[in-house]
């Protein structure tokens, strides 16, 4: 039963979803929402000497405040980081689908080219055999065999090269589909090339950052790094731990009350972490702009190539139609015995050569359209991640800051 490109793509999607890493949002958010455990301090100094003394003890419990204050920022970091990873995984899946489309087009086009080469080889081999027979009968010389030998050798080499290439393509497609390398797969697809709407593609380029998963991943990555930068700035403030302590001293006096401890930011004010997050955020911004510019350039180049290929394909149609008409008339004359066999084979091979040229142009057009579909995210839903929400900032230090 013939296999369509739709079935291939659906199969690859299922494999990709099944094997997708569990980089889901939930585990990361759960980890970000967890509060630090309280700290318990115990001491029991033994009484060693002195009048009317006793063993002392103390029990205290304290909680780190900075981790609680930074909890909303950690949640923001986790949300954006998980979204960036999921978008990156989606981009990998999208590229795999593009590779499958390309292999499908190349295999179907290669099968058409194989048929044309087989016919050319048949004509040339028959002429070669006739020339050999004529030499044996003394009606031709070895000089007449030389061009036939070269022609047969060339077409056989072309066919063998294409046969190896087709086998490699099928192995790659079967691997993407999760099939054994030699599993039979009968492909069926349209041979005509659809028209490319260059004007619409150029108009849709403005929304490219909302459709390309890799660009969406970079945007979420930027937001995650922006939150990390704010977290690093907030981490400059002293870490305060508050709690309660109760105990008894060596004179058997009991006490109970609050306790606080904090670090003094004298030697390390987190400048290194702040500089690192600033550099990382700026690097993500540069990478986003560079990738967007590169994508726009590649799309523009492909559209230009598509225009040229379409003109060349339109130009070859009348020449191919003429070659087919001449070949039909020549074949009829040859069957009636009124046309030379060598000239007949030359005309048939010339017509098949133009057929192969058309197949090559159609394949190049389809390959370009597959590349365009992958680059522009054709068929991908538009994912607007929306404006950046207000920063998670319990101290109110960043409310006036906007990116």
TrEMBL record:
Any one Gene Ontology molecular-function term assigned to this protein's record: efflux transmembrane transporter activity
Pfam families to which the protein is assigned, alphabetical: OEP (PF02321)
Domain of life, source organism: Bacteria
Annotated family: Belongs to the outer membrane factor (OMF) (TC 1.B.17) family.
Name the UniProt record assigns to this protein: Transporter
Organism expressing this protein natively: Methylocella tundrae
Higher taxonomy: Bacteria, Pseudomonadati, Pseudomonadota, Alphaproteobacteria, Hyphomicrobiales
